[in-house]
Amino acid sequence: MMERGYWIKSKPIYTSLVWHEKATSHLVVAQGQGGLAAIKLFQQMHPQQPVTTLYEHSDIDANFAITLKKVVPEDLHLLKSEQEVVSLLKRIMPTKRMGLRIYVAGSEGFIWAVAEAVKEFGIEDADIMKELTGTLARSIYCVHCKAITHNITTNIGKCSSCERMLFVRDHFSRHLGAYMGLMVDAESPGQLPEIEEIYP
Amino acid sequence: MASTFKKETFREDYTYSNSAEAIKRFPFPFPEDQYMYSVNIEPHVKGKVGSVCEFTFDVDEHYVAECLDKKITLEQDPGRYQALPHMMDAQWDFLELTMESLSQDYPQHFSLNKNGSVWTWENKPLGIKDTFTFGDSSTLAMEPFDYMGRQVQGDFVLLDHREETLFADAGIVTSQADWSLAFNVGMSWREWHGPVPRATELGVMDRALKHLLNLQFGSPVRRLNWTMTINPRLDTSPENYPQWGGDRNAVNADNVSDLVHLRVELQTLFRLPRSNAIMFSIRCYLINLKDLSTYSRWAKRLHRVQKTMHPDLIEYKGMTKFHPLVVDWLAKFDDGAALDVGTHAE
Amino acid sequence: MSMINAIVAAVEQVTPLVKHFTFVKEDGSKLPPFSGGSHVVVSMDIGGRVHRNPYSLMGSPEATDAYHISVRKQENSRGGSVFMHEHVTVGMPIKITYPVNLFSLAKKGHKHILIAGGIGITPFMSQIADLNRLGADYEMHYAFRSPEHGAFVEQLKKSCSSRLHCYIDSQGEQLDFKALLGDQPLGTHVYVCGPSSMVTVVLETARNLGWPERHIHNEQFLSPPVGEPFNIQLAKSNIEIQVPADMSMLEAIEAAGVEADYLCRGGVCGRCELQVLETDGAILHNDHFLTDSEKVSCKKIMPCVSRANGKRLLLDL
């Protein structure tokens, strides 16, 4: 239902990171493959205002961390998990002033976790520059049981909570950080369209 | 306006029905033989006596049963009510508008007494009587929008006006045509209307937004929208799609006129004074094809509209499976004679 | 457009140049509630010609027994403010529109910096009432020429107490915009109303410091500028109208008996926008509503403040 004729105005906009010229300070938050986006950012002309950088990575992306340590002149924080990123953000945000510019690079799930973490400080997601890196995997909100299932790479995914097979609509909710998932075989139980990987 | 309220259901055994009077006042939405998605906004001024636009809010024979159905839906899924914290002024605006309109338009059913900021509200059909302090949420059993949203037929969305657009920052939604408040809450006008096919392409939504941003207090507007629903079911939410989606398979040539309902939404929009928010009300009217064909003019017109519908719209409205049966059933009413423009029954 | 029939209940000279007017409803009932930052458009019949000027509502949005506006006398204006000062007296009937808000508070803001210059204080009076009621964090920065021109300072001291900061030009006090806006907590919004030079400085300062556009608010009603007379043609009404030097297009259209939409009459809201079907001259866009590309395209015009200099300007009206 409603697969056809769907426009995608609600889909978020992702770009490549570039420094804002006008700012009082900058905050760069990256994860995994997003480390490369952060490195590219630091290769651009360095801003005059102070920069704080948070990078979360696993062993696979250790090379990005080594490079970042070389190119980031000061205030670089290397972290091991999304939780560490979020709790550090909650500590440093209260000290920041208007004119802070925020740049995020990573998976879609990471980008929206950061957006959620800074929301309480009066930052709207539109004020955050976002670069999607690595995977196109989506987080899916099951409209039936309200659970969110992460890392869905196919057109149809199984809800991790109620186990319904969900069709992934191109309709994105910023406050949930997820696309809408709707039971695909409600009208004809058990009859599933072909499952394809479309968000590698 | 009905003086008695029917006992009926909008789920399971579906005892909902329309009286002859209700059929006659049904807000038929097609003035012409062809349907085009358009903004078709007009001032929400007093309509003819007995019509659904006679008063600010229409209270009809289904009032008590609809409020009960709403209560069941909210109990099963509290997520159908959402209000972001900055919408509290708009909540009180909503309470004031609904209480003042209902008590003025239907004094036999509702009364409002104000003693300074201490108000006493009585709703006789639902057996409610409460005294509270206007502006003080702690004096009501629930938030003011939730409280009155349960006492008026239809769905309500409160739109915050900022950044040259409107944000759906509060809602009480239990009779929606397949959209999810829990998912959409907080969305801007453009994000919210992302799913309407062909409309954005035509710039219709941008024009409608421009119009609404200039909506003035004291000058509400209205429009009609429509779809089709199997069974007289108010709660055709995506949340409960597994419960009602399969109903579409049950339609056949013998039962099409009983099962398929034309679902018309009377949408009204009001600027709210204290909050500068906009109240969007979506009131749903249901009629099965059999009752609708009481007036052959309507049956003829509906046949022509459905026969010429764009497939994208048929799909968007979820009618693909049973649409040919609807057209076939209506065909027998259509003698091909020309119909004058207008939605009147006779 | 629906209007409210009001009566002038009080007139008070507040400063040498500012008068304060109190309106009540003709039938004695309450006026509609409104939100902080709202304005009404006041209709004045000046020698058989109708002037309509927008003025901010100053009272508390809670107290709707009366509406309050203040008018600064503009000596070189087209007469609206002079009329209000010299001819409007207690007991006079006056027509006003329902309140409209084009300068509303950002309800999600964590802190609000209000900056007023001179008579630009008026929209903040009702906003302060809302901010106090909501218990919001704010600062009121008010700059004026000299002590005798500081309208409503005593009232503001009571309502804002330590949140009020005054800057008196004649005493050499200057507001340092960069210092003020350069050190505000996240989630702060800035609002400015005053002379256009002040508005420009505040907008530029905030933008240069990297404030997001959504956090910057201003209200700047324009008076319709005086210009050369020109002619317009209305396609639907099929008439030609001359727009005199001291009349706006919108006023000329209304004077000719043609009904046209409007809200703010100050080039802000966009309600009176008209489609230009043909033109042989330049359009003198004076509004804050159309985008630069729309202005260049010459397909739209805001008749409340804009003018033209050709012989032919065919409008879709």
Describe this structure in words.
The complex is a heterotrimer of chains A (200), B (346) and C (317). Chain A is α/β, with parallel strands linked by helices and 200 residues long. Chain A folds into 2 domains: 25-132, Nucleotide-binding domain of ferredoxin-NADP reductase (FNR) module (Rossmann fold), CATH 3.40.50.80; 135-200, no CATH class. Chain A has 4 helices and 10 strands. In chain A, the strands form 2 sheets. In chain A, strands 3-2-1-4-5 form a 5-stranded parallel β-sheet, with helices on both faces. Chain A has a 5-stranded mixed β-sheet with strand order 7-6-10-9-8, with no helix packed on it. In chain A, a hairpin with a 6-residue loop joins strand 8 and strand 9. The model of chain A is unreliable at 1-7 (pLDDT under 50). Chain B has 346 residues and is α+β, with helices and mostly antiparallel strands. Chain B has one domain (20-331). Chain B has 13 helices and 10 strands. In chain B, strand 3 and strand 4 form a beta hairpin. The longest helix of chain B is centred in the N-terminal third of the chain and has 18 residues, at 88-105. The radius of gyration of chain B is 20 Å and the shape is globular. Chain C has 317 residues and is α/β, with parallel strands linked by helices. Chain C has 3 domains: 3-101, Beta Barrel (Elongation Factor Tu (Ef-tu), domain 3); 111-218, Nucleotide-binding domain of ferredoxin-NADP reductase (FNR) module (Rossmann fold, 3-Layer(aba) Sandwich); 230-315, Ubiquitin-like (UB roll), CATH 3.10.20.30. Chain C has helices spanning 80-87, 122-134, 153-160, 177-181, 196-208, 249-255, 292-297, and strands at residues 3-13, 18-25, 38-46, 49-56, 67-72, 93-97, 100-101, 111-117, 137-144, 164-168, 188-193, 216-218, 230-234, 239-243, 274-279, 283-284, 300-301, 307-308, 313-315. In chain C, the strands form 4 sheets. In chain C, strands 1, 2, 3, 4, 5, 6 and 7 form a 7-stranded antiparallel β-sheet that branches. A 5-stranded parallel β-sheet of chain C has the order 10-9-8-11-12, sandwiched between helices. A 5-stranded mixed β-sheet of chain C has the order 14-13-19-15-17. The two termini of chain C are 17 Å apart. The mean pLDDT of chain C is 92. Chain A binds chain B through residues 1-2, 4-11, 141, 143-144, 146, 164, 169-176, 180, 182-183, 186-189, and chain B through 79, 178, 180, 182-187, 190-198, 200-201, 238-242, 245-246, 248-249, 312-313, 315-316, 318, 321.
